[in-house]
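Input.
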Amino acid sequence: MDAASAPASVHAGSDAGVRASQNEIEQASSASKPPPRASSSKLPTTSKSRAQATFRSHASGLLDGEPHMTQDDFVRAIAPANEDYHKIARESYAVLFSIADRKHRGLVSLQDWEFFENLLQKPDAEYEIAFRLFDTDGNGVVDYDEFIDYYSKNKSDDSIPFDWNSDWVTLYIGDKRKRHSMTYPQFAQMLRGLQGERVRQAFHFYDKGNTGYIEPEQFQKIIEKTARHKLSDRLLSSLQTLCNISTSSKISYANVRAFQNVIRETDMVDVIVKNACSKSPDGKITRFDFMNEAARSTKFSLFTPMEIDVLFHFASLDNKTGRLSHDDFRRVLDPSWQDPVTLYTLAQAEKVEAAKNAFRAPVHFLSEVFESAYHFMLGSVAGAFGATIVYPIDLVKTRMQNQRSKIPGQLLYKNSWDCFTKVINREGFQGLYSGLGPQLVGVAPEKAIKLTVNDFARGKLTDEDGKISLLSEIISGGSAGACQVVFTNPLEIVKIRLQIQGEVAKSMEGAPKRSAIWIVRNLGLLGLYKGASACLMRDVPFSAIYFPTYAHIKKDYFGEGPNKSLGIGQLLVAGAIAGMPAAYFTTPCDVIKTRLQAEARVGQTHYRNIHHCATTIWREEGFKAFFKGGPARVMRSSPQFGCTLAAYELLQSLLPLHIGGKTEAGHSIPSGAAKEVPPEKRQVEYLRSRNALKILLDIDENFGRPKVTQLKESWKLVPGFNSK
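Output.
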């Protein structure tokens, strides 16, 4: 039973316990006790099967030949490693172990675990968990001495003093002469208002002169001690700025109460902001938009003018335009929010450390290698798919670049569309895919080498703070483009000659049709690297433009980071935008490379080197010839990236990677920066346990954490420990 469904007499006793008779209290106590500790209703069949599977997968202890959970096993079971623990420490969940350990043996049996799972299934599990913790003797009520004893064992050593004999406390448990025990509904209702009373008493503690004002740093300390677990890091770092909403340099009690009310209504604020933003053309709202939506969403005025001032003051910290998005509010009101730049830096730093410590930490490095192999495999298949889809555009681009328009009788194509239609008419549909084989062979190592070298170079050029300069990004991208030439140039020359021979066969009677093997044997090893210098001139600037542009669009425009994964549409846009300038501005080098690598026909000039090729094209065909096939190169980049990415994402979902710190298909979780799990994928047991801890943290900020004194006692068991 929760507080809302308790009998009216119970609530009356809760709110005016000093006036209730002892008989009424005992009757309410008897009627409101939670189920006895030793019993529990049976779990549904599916829930029971899942509970048993969870128990078996985590239990590492043995007692009388039966598997049991240790405290560490218990924490791992109810607090998954892939959750966000930067607000509520994972070790804090150990305080719940005493509820499951019903026989106080330091071990949890399967029956104990099923009992705890059943408790978590209850709609008021959060408050009942807290009640059972304080009901240490298991008699169904919590008396004053029992509460104070358990509170004293778990409170922080440096907590702000709280008077448990105050008038507020007396309303719930009576004064010293007429103490009475609290039933479950009374206890839950007391916890509901405890945080507000803690803030009120803390304000009085710092307001020595009873002026009604405290210093900003004192306000910050109060909030950090009472509500840190409910607030975002951005809000916590800006608490002292609350004094800016008034003309005073200090913070009044009215300001504190308004702030507390806003935090208490965070869920309602989020609903109102979402509704208002959804109705705004640009997804942003003003103060008046919020107030109007609040009036429509509530039956009475929920927020005072000062509370509106407080809300918009903090939501506007990083946006001074007066028009705020949902993210602006989430940045200060969502406790799970973390700076995406910081988290992105942490993720990159972990990869850098894995590479630097390859020999000192081979296991971790091997997992990174395995992950790279996984991505290489998926990238190969997805890259082959993307290359196949856009290959006809590549063939048209090559033929347009190789066309020497100033030679009489050699002008085969008027434009790219004319080239496309003539290939189909003369060579059939399969003619659009001439030379596809070498392209498919080369796409996997090309992408793998390019991506690996870029990541490696970025890691080496990243400073200790996780930052990398634009020049270093350009060098990293250029290095990646240079390294891929070693492998891709032989495949490029074979592909180009296969693409060209189709038109040669149609224009020259008796022209033999040659295979890729014949071309390789005829060229020899040195011949396969013909035009390598021009290939370097194309690929180095292409990658130097593409990679920094792509990285900055994702991070700076779309806000990518461990705390935010981009969708396929956003990645497609980023890749398309980055690829356009990279492809078009490097077209002159691509034209020169194509001319050098294509086999010259009878009567055509044989280009000796890059300089000779460039000057000849300039003299015979003019400046425009250097940009032949430029539009085709741009048109190829965007759809190829999109098709490759779509195939890659599909393969990731069909073939997910499951190795130690991985949760989704290949997405790693950096240490200290756990990836946020979508609410619909979270276990209700974890959510209920987390919410129960939030209630307990309202009592004290470090409730459940081992104290320093306890840790010292534990270390005394270690040989050689010196307590001095």
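The CA atoms of residues 382 and 650 lie 9 Å apart.
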